[in-house]
Voltage-dependent calcium channel gamma-5 (Mytilus galloprovincialis), 219 residues
Amino acid sequence: MALAVGTDSWLFTEEETIKNIENGTLKFTAHIRTGLWRLCIIVGYDYPDICVNVGYENADEGREEGQETSMAIMRANRVSTVFPVITLVLLVTGFTVSAIGNIQGDIKTLIGSVVYISGGLTFAVGIILYISSINDEVGHRQYNESGDLVFQYSYGWSFYFAGLAFLFTMLSSVVQISLFLKRNSKKDDMIKIIPGLDGVLSDPEDEIPGGASNPTIIL
């Protein structure tokens, strides 16, 4: 997730652009890759890409007429950008708490797993907003004289890295919760985890001769 948040390959776009110059108009195809924080123009011919930082704090509300679709997408994504960052913070926190819990063998492992799940849900909300904003802006793209689309886009490896991070986060949460419950399946372990549970649990062996050794909950 840290690699996805810090890189600039979330979205690749190809767009025909017309610029007014002194002696007429200049028509060219712009190849752009964007991340959460920067926009880079792919120059090609072994030249380095030209990158600029995205200033979300100066972005106005609403759609600007005549604006390139690539730029409009960046403006529209200023809300969804926050969610991957929050997800990264939650994942780091969950990893730290889970590591401490595994070392000490206490309930911190379970708390870390809950934080992991919260991070995954936060990312899911962010990625839905991200994709929705792209589809919304692409819906307003222009057509050329032949009726063909003048704008094309594809998701980059940073986007897919974030998706893999989401899957591994959910898998890690399930594994940690399963191992925690397996490691603390005895009555004494349950009482240690949940204070006050000793007054709720009773051992059937004390009431029924030859009863099962598993504790039951008296409602």
